[in-house]
Amino acid sequence: MTLNEYMELPYRMEIVPDKEEGGYAVMFPELPGCMTCGETLESAVSNAEDAKKEWLMAALEEGQEIPGPDGLNDYSGQFKLRIPKSLHRQLSEHSKQEGISMNQYCLYLLSRNDAIHSQA
């Protein structure tokens, strides 16, 4: 596979707020050691894509085996969700404050809460 083909694979991105220093830590669990951070959600996600690309480039250059995404073939990555109009407005406003799309903001919220739930 080429670098671009690997970049298109749906690797799981985990975003965790750094409560001690501020900002956000981001990692890709299927790519060992592939992690980064950012001061804002937008910068964290952008840095994560750069880190994933660098990790994949290094693995390809070294002839290292690159794991595929964990069992995601059964999932499209999309689902419909009906929410109250008031919640829709709040999510839209918060995403604008962060300077990211509402989709990215909701992904962050879901990832953060899933990580908290997984630790319990």
Largest sheet: 3 strands, antiparallel
User: How would you describe the shape?
Assistant: globular
Order of helices and strands: HEEEHHH
CATH level 1 class label? Alpha Beta
Q: How many discrete structural domains?
A: 1
Question: What is the percentage of strand-forming residues?
Answer: 5-15%
Give an overview in words.
This is Toxin-antitoxin system HicB family antitoxin. By secondary structure, this protein is mostly helical. The chain is built from 4 helices and 3 strands, in the order H-E-E-E-H-H-H. It has helices at 3-8, 41-62, 85-98, 102-119, and strands spanning 14-17, 24-27, 35-38. Helix 3 (85-98) packs across helix 4. The radius of gyration is 16 Å and the shape is globular. The mean pLDDT is 88.
Q: Characteristics of this structure?
A:
120 residues, mainly alpha, Double Stranded RNA Binding Domain, three-stranded antiparallel β-sheet, 4 helices, 3 strands, globular
How would you concisely characterize the structure shown here?
This is Toxin-antitoxin system HicB family antitoxin. The chain is mainly α. It is built from four helices and three strands.
